[in-house]
Amino acid sequence: MNYIASVIILLANFKNAIGACPIGSLQGTESNSCYKFFGSITNFYDAQAQCEKTYGNLTSVHDSFTNAFLARTLMEIMQDTTSKVLLGGFKKGVNWTWTDGSSMVYTNWAKGEPNANGNCIAIQPSNNQWYAVDLNLNSPYVCEVGGPVNSITTSTAVIPSNTPINTCIDHCESDWIYYDRNSFCYKVFYNANWTSAEELCRTYGAHISSIHDIDENYFITNITQTGRNVDDYVDVIWIGLSDININYTFRWSDGTPFDFTNWSPGNPDQTNYGNRCVILYPDKVTSDTWDHYQLWDDWDCDKYMRAFACKKPARRP
Ligand SMILES: [Ca+2]
Fold first, then answer.
1. How far apart are CA 42 and CA 77, in angstroms?
2. Residue 12 and residue 141 in one domain
3. Which residues belong to any copy of the C-type lectin domain (predicted)?
4. What's the CA gap between 314 and 187, in Å, rounded?
């Protein structure tokens, strides 16, 4: 978990080099593509689904310059020489292709690769080389942002018939993110006060996300962060915790037990301001004397915060 936390922290510090790329992504030095690096550990299908939420795909690689750029950048982010990181390559029948629909003209397989057991491509940043890995192997991944979304998650045609499938496509609607630790589905929405956020979630049979352990806290952080420092205290997310029903008694809007807290220093503190609803800081706060990153703060329920995640149980196949 230290590894995941360190990657997330580094991602949060990652600044956008050129304005043309979406917030939180990085302009490639060798191409006009933008890349977003995810330190969360995710299987191939969930990684592709997450990339589609940023209007892209898992990244394709078409030349050695881009390959070297990705490896170099991943080394800087991960500070880890052994982990492999998912790219968008996968085995379709007997051929290898990319999730963005482009054909595989460049490859950089390690010696002995692709091995017969692997169905998707992961790069080892320390040597730039590619390895065939299992589709269900949970790994960090790289999205290529921009360009058309090619939704493999809604198609079964590309899934090798001998591969066990236990991913979001079995459990969540296609645009919701499956979290396998608790079998819930999540989707990020934007710009609402706490009450309107909860109302919107309920129209989907969901609630603003509750959080029950530090791993779920990391997960919520990861799916809602921009990677850009927070300059304004509304550039944060709502979580489902409030005391709007009983003053001074915090409860989750989904009715689950209040069994975990992750308060920032000095919070909760707004006992004199009436209703209290709780935010989480998914990014670092600029000039923060305390470190609020990933922590909670009780706040004014009427403020319009940047985002929130709705959460609902996965459907059983
Ligand atoms: Ca507070």
1. 17
2. yes
3. 30-144, 181-303
4. 12
Q: Which residues surround ligand 1, an ion (CB under 5 A)?
A: 267, 269-270, 297-298
Cα–Cα distance, 91 to 115 (Å, whole number): 11
Question: Residue 95 maps to which CATH number?
Answer: 3.10.100.10
Find residue 237's DSSP bridge partners. Answer: 280, 307
Does 159 map to a domain?
no
**Structure confidence at residue 311 (pLDDT):** 96
Residue 265 CA to ligand 1 center (angstroms) comes to 9
Distance 263 CA to ligand 1 centre (A): 9
Distance 300 CA to ligand 1 centre (A): 9
Residue 71 lies in a domain: yes
- Please check whether residue 31 lies inside any domain of the structure: yes
- pLDDT < 50 positions in the chain: 1-19, 147-170
Q: What is the pLDDT of residues 221-263, one digit of tens each?
A: 988 887 777 777 778 999 999 998 888 889 999 999 999 999 9
Residues 97 and 185 occupy one common structural domain: no
249 within a domain of the structure (yes/no): yes
Chain centroid to Cα 269, Å, comes to: 30
Q: How many domains, in total, are found in the chain?
A: 2
The token pair at 228 is: 């850009």
For residues 131 and 269, membership in a common domain is answered with no
State the residue range of the domain holding 288: 177-313
CA of 12 to the centre of ligand 1 (A): 22
Distance CA 228, CA 90 (A): 31
